[in-house]
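Exam revision sheet. Question 4 asks you to relate a sequence to its structure. Input first:
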Amino acid sequence: MKSFSERYGYTRPSDALIIEQISEGVINAIINCLQDLENYGDYNLLKETVWLFFLNKKRADFDDYYDCIEQYLEDRRVEWYYKLNLLEFVIKQIPLLFPKENYNSFIRNVNSEFERLNYGYRIIGNLVTPITSKGEIESIEVAIDSARDNIKEHLNSALKHLADKENPDYRNSIKESISAVGVLCREMTGENDLGKALFVLEKKQGKLHPKLKTAFENLYQYVNEKQSGIRHELMDESGTYVPTFHEAKFMLVTCSAFINYINGKFAVNK
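Answer key, structure tokens:
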């Protein structure tokens, strides 16, 4: 239900998820989720690890009573993406210092708070990733979790290029996403060319629907055409096309969903 202020026009509901910034509410939510961990493991050791290996401070200056994590998150001088760097660092340390169920609970709680606050990031595979919906997250996670190593590597690489908050590489994220589809189709058909592989899948028992085949042929052409610069040199700003976050996210979600579809469709029809 909309809030009072939204119903009566005092504020506008957000039409887009918040990205490339971090609000006080989001910071408070992260801190609250971290504080929930204090009763289940060595939180002081977590702080000390951040102090030594993220902030690169001297061990002799560490103080058990000083929460360096909270102070860093609340420091207005620190750019938003460095604060998300800290969150990623902490996420990777938690499994080493806390029981697995507390790690899982922390991830769920942070993602729940990000969703509640309309924050345009979620934690997927230990990475803070720009994404827009629970369904999209689940599609990517299922594809990565169920994929064989070579396909998983392409999807993880696409995710990392997309998740890089300081230097995102949308061109290579798109390339890795479509490459994951290409590997899957090649393994299923023996065809090196994705277009030919899709044709073989269309003719298999259970069939790939012709419209889906055409859709992915068009996506593959988009990736390979010179105008997009995906598999060619990056284009400059003189009128040629440069991929953005939105195209990269679309390709990762779409390719993950297609991989899930193919795995499900042809597993059933073997």
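Marking note for examiners. DSSP finds twelve helices and two strands in the chain.
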